[in-house]
Every structure is written in structure tokens, then in C-alpha cells.
Structure prediction request, 463 residues.
Amino acid sequence: MNKRFPPVPVGGTVPLSPEEMLDDGAREIIARLNAGGYEAYAVGGCVRDRLLGKIPDDYDVATSATPEQTREIFSERYSLPTGLKHGTVTVLVRGKGYEVTSFRTEGEYEDGRRPSSVFFVRDLKEDLRRRDFTVNALAYHPNEGIIDLYEGLSDLKNGIVRAVGEPERRFSEDALRILRAVRFSSVLRFRVEEKTASAAIRMAERLDLVSAERKSVELKKLLLGEGARSALLDFAGVIVRVVPELAPCVGFEQNSRWHRYDVYEHIARSVEACPKDTVLRLTMLLHDVGKPSRYSEKDGQGHFYGHEAVSARLAKNALERLKIDNKTKNTVVKLISLHGRPFPVKEYKLKKLLAETGREDALRLLDVAFADNAAQGTEPAAREREKIDGAKERILGLLRSGEPYEISMLKVSGEDLSVLGFRGKEIGEELCRLLDACMRGELKNERETLLARAAERGGERRS
Ligand code: ATP
Ligand code: MG
Prediction:
């Protein structure tokens, strides 16, 4: 028998009327499936998030209708067969997509990778049982309220990530759940229940069976979590299975007056100290992975000369293995290779840095520097912060001033120069000279001035 609960507020002001629990589209989909004689419930992340007072990114619906029946109800035009094999149809309501999945259970797992087959089942109970964690196994119906078969509500109230059923069994069915447990503890700031946590740590090796794509989705979400630091620290054994480059960092003491924490803890703290952005957080996760191999000691102080380049190389390997997109990978690797460099004080050199990084990455480098500094945890490091504040002011000032640091910012173009008689690579060379003169403050970035200087030089050349 299904255990049915009336809606129960979870901690504080929780909206629970159907209007507040679901958006219009999800309510409409459930109503139309019900009118067609089928059961239908909102399930999973959207129920959890609404009860936590968050706005879900998307609403998932589970139904007793088969995918074909779902498509009949919503017509071909408003439904897309996005995952028929898994029983999923995407229903469009006013342009927004909702995943509607037939109640299902999963067949035998061959190797902990993926269910080898999916069986459709009659009832919601079976469908909820195959879900990973109790807080993800809640369902909601506008007339029935919350359906809580696995004590998800109490775990939600107490902030606990707990496997549905036997953790070991659930993790051997699908090892990705090991990483998902850590992800949810980071994103929700929940504690992982003891048996679930110890199984996750014990079985971390099984993550090797899971595809890189599935792991990197979870890793990225984990890094963006509110509780990323504790999740990374408490589950280091799981994390190094996904990013083995981090393994030598765990417990690696820095013996430096600049650093209070070992390399791994410094990394974990720096992740949480930087803005919630995938590029930045991946950068922090990998920025010091080269440190252990570059350790040396002088006068009892640890040093890591040249670790930035080693970290950048290891990071590239890690990101390629995780199949992170090229744009993200290239930016992360670039930021890591630049992360130890002090920000120049001289304006010309600062402009050179901007020329090298571009505006966006220069701003990112500042975020990296602040996060790196905040995670050092020592007095001398705290005093360094002022320097980064100063660099930030200078960089922002420079960007506001509109002074050129790139050829595209010059008030003359290659075409102008070819009118003046410059040809082929002379054009680029002259533009570089003009830019450099502007950056040094010897020339104003004004069209007439630049044209006059170029004409002079063109004239010299021809005479
Ligand atoms: P998010 O807010 O990040 O989307 P979510 O809980 O919706 O979080 P999804 O990955 O979108 O997470 O999965 C939707 C639901 O499907 C989960 O809430 C859970 O019930 C179920 N689920 C997803 N992946 C698994 C898995 N590997 N094993 C068991 N159940 C899963
Ligand atoms: Mg989701």
C-alpha cells in the first residue's frame, strides 16, 4: 500500500498549494493524463526543490501511460520522442519542455554502468524504488499531496542524503550514484547518512566503470554547490577516483609560512572561495595539482617552483579524460598556467597582460587570485590581499578608460594603412607598432594622430 501524506511544510515557509508546488505546464500535463485515465505525478528533483523553497529548473512527470499513450494524449505536434527506450517523451506546453516518463523499473545491471534493460511497471511505488536517494524519491499530485514511500520527507527536513534501500546494492547497480551522493551533499548542503557514505567511499573504485560524460555532469554540479568544500574534503576518496591527478595532493603538507593547509585542503577551500562558475571552479580544482611533483625545501620552507606549468599540463589531461568541452578546457588550462604570476604595477605591463588574456580572462584571473589567497589561511597571505585589491582597481580602471591594448581597439584599421601604401605583412607590423606606442602613452589613440604617424613611416619607407 502506498503511504500517503498530506503536504507537510519542510522547514519554514514552504509553498504547498498545487499552484505553488507546480508550474502551470506540469499541472496541465498531470490533469490531461488523469483525464485520459492514467496516473500521473510530479517526481524527483522538482518535488525536492519546491519543498526546499527553490525554483526547479525543470519538472519531471511519471505516468502509468506508455510513451505511445502519452504521445496520443498530447498529439505528435506537442510531444517529442526524446528517450523512447527509457520511456521518456518530452511534452511541450507553451514552448517549455517537460519530461514525461512511464513508470518503470530497471532490469538486471550487467556491470554497474547502466541498466541493461528497462521494464515498464504498473505503479508509482516501483518507479520510486529505483530512484537513487530518498529525497529524490518523493512524488506529488495536486489532489493527493506528497507521496513519501521511503521517508524522504524526514530526510529532507534533517538534511540527509540516504540511498533508497541497501546502499551497496544501489551503488553496484549504477556506480554513478556514488558521485551523485557527493553532488547532492554539496548542492543541498546535506550530510550523507553513515551507511550510504561508507559504501560510497568503499566502492569508489567502481566509478571507473562509468562513462566520462556522466561523471563530468555530476562533477560540475558538485563543484558549483554551496557546500563544495566539505563535500570535497569528506569524500576525497571518491573525488580522486574521478580526478586521479588530485591523489598526490591529499595530505601533502606545504611547510610554507604562506599556507596553513595541505595542498588538497587548500584546493577544496579555494573552490568554495571563488564565484559559482564552472570555468572558475574547475580552475581552482586543478590549479595546484602540479605542486607535489615540484616540491623543494630551502631553509625549512617548502617551495613549488614551476608548479603552474605542471598543473596546467595535468589539468589538460584531466579535462580531456573527463570530456570537458574544448572552450572550457582551454580557458581553464590558460588560467592555471597564469595563476601564479603577480599582477604588474606598471601600466604598460598591465596592458600587456590584458593583451595576452583579453578582458574576460583578466577578470577571471582576479577571481582566481582572490580565491587562491582566501584559501591560504595565514597572516602573510591575508596581507597580500591588498595587492590583489590594488590590481583589481588598476585593471578595472584600465578597462573603463577605453585605452587600447588590442589592435582591434585602435582607431585605424588595416584598410586605412593599405590606402597609405602598406602592403602584406607590413600592415600588421605597423598596427603593432602603433598599438605599442599607444600602450606606452607616446601616442594618442586618435584617428588623425595614428594616420599621420603611419603616413610618416610609410613616407620614410618609400623614400
Ligand atoms: P537537478 O536539480 O540537478 O536536475 P535532479 O534530482 O532532478 O537534480 P536528475 O539527474 O535530473 O537530478 O534526475 C532526476 C531524477 O531521476 C532524480 O531526482 C532521481 O529521482 C532520478 N535519478 C537520476 N539519476 C539516477 C540514477 N543514476 N539512479 C537512480 N535514480 C536516478
Ligand atoms: Mg533534474
Observations:
- The chain has four domains: 3-158, 165-242, 258-398, 407-462.
- Residues 407-462 form one domain.
- The CA atoms of residues 11 and 395 lie 44 Å apart.
